Amino acid sequence: MNKTWGRAAAVLTVGALMLSGCGGDDEPTATPTPSGSASSSAPASPSSSGSGSTSPSATATPSSTAAADVPAAARARTEVGAIAFLTFFYDEVNRGQTAPGSVDLFTLSDKDCIACKKLQTSLQEFVDNGWSVKQGPVEISGAALANAATEERVIINFTFVQRPVDYYKSGASQGKLQAGTTKNAAALRWISGGWQMYDLEEL
């Protein structure tokens, strides 16, 4: 795939897979799913009833060290470097669920990245509701560039996998994240000597 990414032309949304939780008022519901699709292009996070925000909460706790922690392998403007950055981005999403409040995805993303805003909101829900997981639920596989690493927008096609891990509150399991696999694409751009997430889309 070699496409032109335009946020005005294509509404890129990020959703979360359904959760199977315990009953009661605090049972999580699904976070928004991509337009026209019943599956997810991003890791799930529990979302409380009535949570419809599509931008990061003002109470989010950013990580001041996230950008500095980008591995050297993910700083090269090469195919390997772009894929390493994508992997690191999702590692940070996992860390935001195992250690809620520790990650600010906008140290790695374009400020107008719609998908990233939704992901950051999902991570903030872990903080707001006291949820966490013991093992990161997300992994990616089969990542491959659809165009050259020197292009203005570098497109990476990959498979997103979510494992059915438990999520906890006050040490007690609240349910499991539902397993799922989807085909996705990420758009990266090279700016100020490093990679930046531009947007994400489910294929």
From TrEMBL:
Residues 70-198 form the DUF6318 domain. Residues 23-64 are annotated as: Disordered. It comes from Knoellia locipacati. Residues 1-23 form the signal peptide. Keywords: Signal. Residues 29-64 have a biased composition (Low complexity). This is DUF6318 domain-containing protein. InterPro entries: DUF6318. The keyword Nucleus does not apply.
